[in-house]
Amino acid sequence: SIPGYVERSKYFVALVPSVSYDDEPHIRCDSSTWSARGWCRTEAFVAALSASSEPKVCFAIMEDQIILEFLPLQWLFAPPHQGEFAFESDRAMLHQLESEVFDEHLEAAARKGKTGYARTLSAMRVHINPEHRIQEKLEKWLLNYGFTDPCDAGEDGWGPVSFAALEGNTQVLLELVARGGSVNTATRTAAEQVMVEAGMTPLMLAAMFI
Q1: What one-character-per-residue DSSP string does the chain give?
Q2: Ramachandran sector of residue 201 (left: φ over 0; alpha: ψ -120 to 50; beta: rest)
Q3: Are 104 and 110 in contact (CB under 8 A)?
Q4: Do 41 and 83 touch, CB atoms closer than 8 A?
């Protein structure tokens, strides 16, 4: 399976030179067509959610002398199920696989005590599956994320306000701010899986994800 071999691989290399079809020379394939294909996006998506909680470094060989090093973070704004498919019936199948992979990583992170990573994945669930209903009642939301205090500073600055902004949960975010939560408290560690650098504030996260 795609999740199986990507998880077990040490390197992720995409061979994406610019070439044309023999029978349809007006159609060219390159890095842009690779990144547009749903199944190719799935490979990058699994690489981003690696078991180590850090995305795998990937390489795209584009031409003889052009090798691009990148982190597979396009899933944030170009999820696999929104990609292109030769067979439209594959879309629903891949969306199911996408959700299963995401849930497996979330459960594994929680089981291994990687609280921050588990909270990050929980916040990103709605961005992978728009049908997922976010919790808008503050007390239940805090319980789901393992917080007891709305103004909890959190580990390395990752408190409730940061995760509400990451989730794009405007209702909870407004309530947290009303109770004294700050949108200007900077995080001290990065969350590479979601392109969040150390030093970013909940206000910056809200601008990205709301």
Answers
A1: -HHHHHHH-S-EEEE---EE-SS-TT-EE-HHHHHHBHHHHHHHHHHHT-TTSSPPPEEEEEETTEEEEE---GGGTS-GGGSB-SSTTHHHHHHHHHHHHHHHHHHHHHHTT-HHHHHHHHHHHHHH-TTSPPP-SHHHHHHHHT-S-TT---BTTB-HHHHHHHHT-HHHHHHHHHTT--S-PPPSS-BGGGTBPTT--HHHHHHHH-
A2: beta
A3: no
A4: yes
Q: In three state form, how does the secondary structure of 36-49 look?
A: HEHHHHHHHHHHHC
Interval 28-46: pLDDT, tens: 888 889 999 999 998 888 8
Q: Is the pTM of this model over 0.85?
A: no
Residues in the chain: 210
pLDDT in tens, 76-111: 888 899 999 999 999 999 988 888 888 888 898 889
Residues 127 and 176: their CA atoms lie apart, in Å, by: 21
User: Which candidate, 108, 105, 123, places its Cα nearest to that of 159?
Assistant: 123
pLDDT-derived band at 52 (thresholds 50, 70, 90) equals low
